[in-house]
Amino acid sequence: MDSVKGFCSALLAGLIVAAPATAETFDRGQALYENHCEACHDTVAHTRTERRAASHSDIRQWVTTWSFHAGLGWSDEEVDDVTDYLNRRIYHFSDQP
Questions:
Q1: Residues 84-92: contacts with CB within 8 Å, 24+ apart?
Q2: Is 31 part of a structural domain of the chain?
């Protein structure tokens, strides 16, 4: 019985130690984009020659506009997270605020 308790304690300790690593790898901007935007905006929308975003602030304006029209009710922080995710993943603009 003591060995079972020891195993359970070790397993629980391992899970507790592993939990912060999982939280650190979560990208809220990516999750929001994948859940609310990606169905209509695959990567082609962002990489086409005639794309409309020419700066980090342009990306933010588009994210703000579409989140409003989609009725998502995103906070400024959520808009920033999606904007930053798109800039890191696709655009790579250096004019971040």
A1: 84/29, 85/27, 85/29, 85/30, 85/32, 85/33, 86/29, 86/33, 86/46, 86/59, 87/56, 87/59, 89/30, 90/43, 90/46, 90/47, 91/46, 91/53, 91/56, 91/59
A2: yes
Domain that holds residue 73: 27-91
Asked if residue 45 belongs to a domain, the reply is yes
Q: Does residue 97 fall inside a structural domain?
A: no
3-state secondary structure of 31: helix
Tell me: the pLDDT tens digits for 80-94?
Answer: 999 999 999 988 998
Give the pTM. 0.69
Q: What is the pLDDT of residues 25-54, one digit of tens each?
A: 899 999 999 999 888 876 666 666 677 788
Residue with tokens 């605020």: 97
Question: Count of domains in the chain?
Answer: 1
